Amino acid sequence: MNPSVVTPFVSTENHKPVGIPAGGNYFAGMEEFATVQCPFCGQSFDVAIDTTIASQCFTTDCEVCCRPFEVRAECENGEIVSVTVAG
Ligand SMILES: [Zn+2]
To answer: Whole-angstrom Cα distance, residue 80 to residue 65?
Structure first.
């Protein structure tokens, strides 16, 4: 038996930053702010919604009472259609 030794291919090109254009405006037109109301303390504040996602759900922390709650956002054609919150 003479097992062959496989040398792993290691690329030295992986250290270059990728995906960020020189202009730095790669987020332009993709995020809108929506006003949500904390289900715990009732405080209203703005959260960023990625309008390129038709239906999304994420958790955010209240800016006032710091409790996490769920935000569901529906978007269409780059605009926010509806935003609902759940504690
Ligand atoms: Zn709160």
So the answer is: 26
